[in-house]
Amino acid sequence: MRKILLKILLATFPIFIVLGVYFYNDPFKVLYHYDSYLQKDGIQYVVLNRDYISTETFLNNYPKYKYDSYIFGNSRSGYYSVAEWEKHIQSTRCYHFDASGEGLYGIERKINLLHERHVPIKNALIVFDQEAISVVNNKPDDDVILRKDPLLTGGSKLDFELANLQSFFDINFLKAYFSFLVTHKPDVSILNNIPTHYEVTTNELTYPAYEALIARNADSFYQSRAHVFYQRSPILQYAPHAIEKEQLALLTNIKRIFEENNTNYRIVISPLYNQVKIDPRDVQALDSLFGRRYVYDFSGINDITQNKYNYYENSHYRPLVAKQIMDSIYSAK
Q1: 314 exposure class (CB count in 10 Å sphere: 0-12, 13-18, 19+)
Q2: Residue 47's Cα: distance from chain center in Å?
Q3: CA-CA distance, 198 to 57, in Å (whole number)?
Q4: If you write DSSP's letter for every residue of 115-146 in order, what string do you get?
Q5: Three-state secondary structure call for residue 297
Q6: 154: left (phi over 0), alpha (psi -120 to 50) or beta
Q7: pLDDT tens digits for 90-123?
Q8: For residue 10, what pLDDT is reported?
Q9: Is the pTM here over 0.85, yes or no?
Q10: Is 81 exposed, middle or buried (0-12, 13-18, 19+ CB in 10 A)?
Q11: Which domains does the chain have, with CATH numbers?
């Protein structure tokens, strides 16, 4: 019996070691409270759940900063600088309420959270694209960094924690993580190695290293990424129709909340490198609900999307584009 117990102990000992590392290091930063989930300047090697960070940071900081203006959207919305936005709105209490892979459902849930807690929404900037408009539910994602904070969805906190723990036990992640702990060299197929700058007061996450590389030698930056900037069709392509009954219900709730808060809002359809134009019926639906003067469609083939130098890669445009868009939509009569 003693030998059997010893064998069991030896067999399970590595599991307890891994669990100990998980609960001690909290690599995904979902177990404990943090005043800031990201360091101000540096590299966050383990990619974190941006939805969770945005929600928890807001709850941590609102009592102190009393935000009243918000930028909503997926990672592309992060390039809309608060410092530039403040030049167009009557507020300096701004917050980035974004999430990786954010969709319409997540945006509506965040706006609803603010409303339920009687938080004023004086200004709002929503950054959409066709894919974001399509997402209307909280279907759990296999990638835990894309899961919604259960506080937004009413889901189980335990399920959320278990999903993160399960993700930690993924064999590929474990190998990369423990190798990094020993060698301090990240496996970039699993871990991150891009320096960032983070302002906890606004939840603004930026990538100054990219801009520094472009400023140093733009030709070298884009030549090294030539394989990323694929050839686009010269014929305008249209995205599938996205706004159906479920999307309209979420959009209608957003509009209702904006009306009750007398919100000064703008809605932007992002200029994506793929140059696919959002379905005209979707633009018409947004115009009808929110008003044509508040909806701005930059999708498709245009001066922004034609120029590859406006992009870091084929998914994200640069802050200078976001500035150009803000200057345009707030000066429009």
Answers
A1: middle
A2: 12
A3: 12
A4: HHTT----EEEEEE-HHHHH--S-PPPSSGGG
A5: strand
A6: left
A7: 899 999 999 999 999 999 999 999 999 999 999 9
A8: 46
A9: yes
A10: buried
A11: 34-207+233-307+320-331 (3.40.50)
